[in-house]
Specification:
Pfam families: Peripla_BP_2 (PF01497)
Helix content: 25-40%
InterPro entries: ABC_Transporter_SBP, ABC_transptr_periplasmic_BD, Peripla_PGF_1, TonB_box_CS
CATH architecture of the largest domain: 3-Layer(aba) Sandwich
Strand order of the largest sheet: 7-6-5-8-9
Shape: globular
Number of helices: 14
Organism: Halanaeroarchaeum sulfurireducens
Domain Fe/B12 periplasmic-binding: 63-309
Protein name: Cobalamin ABC transporter substrate-binding protein
Distance between the termini: 23 Å
Order of helices and strands: HEEEEEHEEHEHEHHEEHEHEHEHHEHHEH
Strand content: 15-25%
Structural class: alpha/beta
Radius of gyration: 20 Å
């Protein structure tokens, strides 16, 4: 596959990430304390997925393949990891993942369809980054595949956690984990309530950021910050101009560990965040995957932005980028293409 083809495929992935809406609802009932729980955890389970298909799971799955790291992490977090027989390369950080079959294709980005078919799982969990064509191919090979909608908020992560539990017969574990997420978020919310909300910019690389209606926006807001990209009218995952960065003048800037650096430009150097050394890097395995562990990121961002109000987690170490370094390029690729590839690769890990 040529470099141009890879970039084209990644661009398709970006468009899909930017345009898919909220997830399907699971039947829920209110419980004391504002938490919700599925009404029914019996089989068969029928749910309409992101492809518009009504997916029926006839019996509790004994074997499950997770095509994305967020789906794999969720299975581990709800206590259903023993049924997982296949995971993507980007889920290798999970305890015991090395004993599962790697279902990633070339470049650790795409699914190896043949491997998944050979595993013959009872259920395949496909996050939003998995192309509909891949889902259709797996279904044509006789597999039951549920493709999730894009998680655009922390509330959607909770919903997806409970939905996963219903699909795999782990409702109790899913409900417990979702309730734990809610308690943690409520604690953070109470701590930062009424505090000044500093402007925060999330840098994805390649000039991209996360605007309004994104999962990252939800993380920033929950941690007591104001997403300056959303404030500037940016929707979804999109480019942000240097002029907008200067105009918004974020007090804090952060990125994820897959990116690890900021654009080397005069505009970024002029921001309050860089001038005051208020820049930090979040772990991509928790930040970039809309799954239960993302609450840990909210806690750490809150401790970083509001150390006087929230000390329930370790704050992120800040970086002094007054003399920023130039982002490295991939041999044979121009600087814009290399930066775009880095940004889109980071996006590909989100789900």
């Amino acid at each position: 596959m040529t470099t141009g083809t890879r970039i084209a495929l990644l661009l398709v992935g970006l468009v899909a990430l930017a345009t898919v809406g909220a997830g399907p609802a699971v039947a829920v009932s209110e419980e004391p304390g504002g938490t919700t729980a599925p009404v029914d955890c019996s089989f068969p389970v029928e749910q309409t997925d992101a492809t518009g298909e009504t997916v029926t799971v006839d019996a509790e799955p004994e074997t499950v393949v997770a095509l994305g790291p967020s789906a794999a992490q969720t299975m581990w977090e709800i206590g259903a990891e023993e049924t997982v027989i296949g995971v993507p390369e980007h889920a290798s950080y999970l305890d015991g993942a090395e004993s599962r079959t790697n279902v990633s294709g070339a470049g650790q980005t795409f699914v190896d369809v043949e491997t998944v078919v050979d595993l013959d799982p009872d259920l395949v969990l496909a996050p939003n980054i998995i192309p509909s064509e891949t889902v259709e191919t797996l279904r044509n090979n006789g597999l039951t595949v549920y493709r999730f909608e894009q998680a655009t908020s922390l509330a959607a992560v909770e919903e997806k956690t409970r939905l996963t539990g219903a699909l795999v017969g782990a409702c109790e574990g899913a409900d417990d984990r979702a309730a734990e997420m809610n308690r943690s978020l409520a604690t953070v919310g109470e701590a930062v309530d009424g505090a000044d909300r500093p402007g925060v910019l999330y840098v994805m690389g390649g000039g991209y950021t996360a605007g309004e209606g994104t999962f990252i926006d939800s993380v920033i807001e929950a941690a007591g910050g104001t997403n300056v990209a959303a404030r500037a009218g940016i929707d979804g995952y999109a480019e942000i101009s240097e002029e907008t960065v200067v105009e918004q003048d974020p007090e804090w800037i952060f990125t994820n560990s897959d990116i690890g650096t900021l654009p080397a430009s005069a505009g970024y150097e002029k921001t309050t965040a860089v001038e005051e050394g208020q820049v930090f890097v979040a772990d991509a395995d928790t930040l970039s995957q809309p799954a239960p562990r993302t609450v840990q990121v909210v806690e750490r961002v809150a401790a970083t932005l509001h150390p006087d109000r929230y000390d329930g987690a370790a704050a992120y170490d800040t970086l002094d980028l007054r003399t920023p370094t130039t982002t490295a390029t991939t041999p044979g690729m121009g600087v814009p293409v290399a930066l775009l590839a880095v940004a889109l690769l980071a996006l590909s890990k989100r789900e």
